[in-house]
Amino acid sequence: MFKRIVNEIDSVFARDPAARSRLEIILCYPGVHAIIFYRISNWLWRSGFKLPGRFISSLGRFTTGIEIHPGAKIGKRLFIDHGMGTVIGETSAIGDDVTIYHDVTLGGVAPGNDVKGSLRHPQIGNNVIIGSGAQLLGPIKVGNNARIGSNAVVVKDVEVGSTVVGIPARAVSEKNMPQDKHFDAYGGTPQAEDADPVIAMLDKLQNDIANLKMRVNELESENSELINSAKKWEAQ
């Protein structure tokens, strides 16, 4: 466990330009503290000590503002940046090298005793970035290298390499697109105005309407010429 925690600290140092030293990460990064609490609580949970696991998890939430259920499955080198308000549910699964920002929810949509043991929370692949305020709800699958934009509400599967934004979330990039070597903060949320799929659709509709108006004007002009020709023919 110690080696894994050291590895996670090194991954944070590599991904966060604000980090000045590993000691600063150990002392001042609540995301790292939350992962340490999780590793302990998860070990207790898997060992059959459910109540102590939940208690350690509650201490972690009180200390860091990050709630991670001890039953969640989390891979290597998870980086929770800032982290306040982040919630990771019981049946969530997170792959390796994932980055999560603050106010993110990996939540279920079917509360109640009738769904005990069933998959209720998101399944996150490797190298995924989830922007601040994003809400991922239900047993959806997020493919490797996907990017979830800030404040997106994701209720459907996200394909490998896709970037999704909006409410509900829609893809704005082609699947399997090459990934840049640099780290994209906050889910690599597109900054261009035409990146929003809703705006792009409205722009397309506006262009189609303008083309239709142009065509109608052309037809009216042709019709007027035909009428004038007919009147001249009748006059003769």
Quick description:
A hairpin with a 4-residue loop joins strand 14 and strand 15.
Explain the layout of strands and helices.
Layout lengths: L1 H14 L6 H7 L1 H17 L3 H15 L2 E2 L4 E2 L4 E2 L6 E2 L4 E2 L4 E2 L4 E3 L15 E2 L4 E2 L4 E3 L3 E2 L4 E2 L4 E2 L8 E3 L4 E2 L25 H39 L1
Parallel strand pairs: 1-4, 2-5, 3-6, 4-7, 5-8, 6-9, 7-10, 8-11, 9-12, 10-13, 12-14
Antiparallel strand pairs: 14-15
Share of β-strand residues: 5-15%
How many individual β-strands?
15
Roughly what percent helix? 25-40%
Structural class label: alpha/beta
Largest sheet: 6 strands, mixed
Strand order of the largest sheet: 3-6-9-12-14-15
- Average pLDDT, all residues: 83
The rough form would be described as elongated
First and last CA, distance: 102 Å
Order of helices and strands: HHHHEEEEEEEEEEEEEEEH
